[in-house]
Amino acid sequence: YARQAYEAVAQLYHREAHFVAINCWQPGGECRQRYTKVLSWPVLMAYQPNGFVIQYHQAWTAGALSRFVQSLVAPLQRFVNPADLMDRMTGKDAVIVAFLEVSNDSKLYHQYYQAAVKWLEKDPFQEVSFGVVTGESCKLFGVETQPSIRLYLWNETIEYVGKESWTPRELNGWLVKHLQVVSMWIAPPGTKSSTIAPYFRQGPVLFLFNPRPLYAEGDSSDAYMMLRQLSMHYYNCAGDTWVQEMAREYIAEQRLVALERYTHRKVQCGSILGRHPSQDDDEGRGADGRRRRRGGIDRSTVSVSFVNVLNSSKFADGRKLAGHSGGSEPDSAYCDIAPALAGRCQPTESCGARFGPERKPSLRWSGTGQQQQEEEDGCPARARPTPEASEVVTSSAIDSTHDYRGPKLLTKQYLRRQCELFRLAEGDGTHLFYTEPEGESDAIYAAVGGLSCKHNKTLTFLSMDSSLYHSFSERLGIDVLQEPNRTVAFIVDAENESTYALRSPINLRTLARFVH
Known about the structure:
Elements: H1 2-13, H2 30-34, E1 44-47, E2 53-56, H3 62-73, E3 77-78, H4 82-91, E4 94-100, H5 106-119, E5 128-134, E6 148-152, E7 157-159, H6 168-178, E8 183-185, H7 197-202, E9 205-210, H8 222-234, H9 241-272, H10 333-342, H11 369-377, H12 390-401, H13 407-428, H14 441-448, E10 460-465, H15 470-475, E11 488-493, E12 498-502, H16 508-515
Parallel strand pairs: 3-5, 4-5, 8-10, 9-10
Antiparallel strand pairs: 1-2, 4-6, 6-7, 9-11, 11-12
Helix pairs in contact: 1-3, 5-6, 8-9, 9-13, 14-16
């Protein structure tokens, strides 16, 4: 069972990592003699080139392993402005950010990077996100002192005081001590354990069973974001306006954006996966810059060809086919590259580093007029070639077309990888969205606002992957796999030996009434 999932992930990520499997069954063999205290198999260890080692502790499924590899490849995210941070906070339990100048603080950055990697042993799917802000961007966040670290929680911001030492042990210990969440994913190990027991000792628990999306990095479950909205209002005893606006406006807006982005991504990925990776998409564009339909290709058919991991190049998809000659597009050369570097893009064909619309509600960062104009144009001004430099840009674009590590082909490979993961998530049925009733938001939030301080019992909000842990819901009386969207909610009160099941369609209104 583990082998099947492991080989599937190896086919996906053979360019990013080297995958090895060791049979440790042989009695008296070297492996058995060295590892004598292993309680269960398989064991997965990840070794980085710098000698850093971490162990994987989650489920052996292709989706979970895939998400773990993505976390290893990108344990940090760079934030350019506060809007990037706000986007991250909507779907994450917490965000920890280091503000530094990499050239002057290289040792601290290296320690911070190791801490982010080591944290993956506790949190392989990055529900607590590590970020970094460098250089002049620090001033946009109101940070005057560098280096420094801030932990952004749902209701407060905490600053790290150990400025001289950022070792993984000290930093992650500080994070565990100060981490406070209003809701969380819970994943029992699959053997007899006490994972859930501490929450029952605290009082009643709300369990929301729903499929957990794990293939696409950054895609949070719509059901879990809905649970965060509810729990933030439930614990907002002081009526903090920041928390109210975060839940009622920003997270609600991001849920709508996620649905629109999903629609755009489905269309775009159908086109990307409908052709072979070696084909340059410039071949399919006409003089007017619009994509032509290639004869004989069925866009509804998704086919991905995997290369042999051991016997061919790690970058085979990026190389040209012999005899192929593609044209160049000087005007769009920089537009293809810049959005991926600048972190923003309009939903145009040339700027394809992101999928779908990107809307920012009232909490968004407001930049200068020049910066906003750059965003509206879809391509940053600093990336546009001047008339004097047009010849140089054209020459560079032609050369980079055939560079398998150049930005143009790296962007294409990134898009193809995202579409491959999107297709796998579609197969798992984890792209689910829940419609909300209109005009009832005030009544919804008024029903649960600050309830945690108004009664002598406090509710704990937990979410579980219904695809992996459906046996838990079956023990509570409902087969979640037969429910609409494989989603169901329970409130379990262990002290009173009572269990309540929500039988209405799942949305924010029904959940709020259920809690009330």
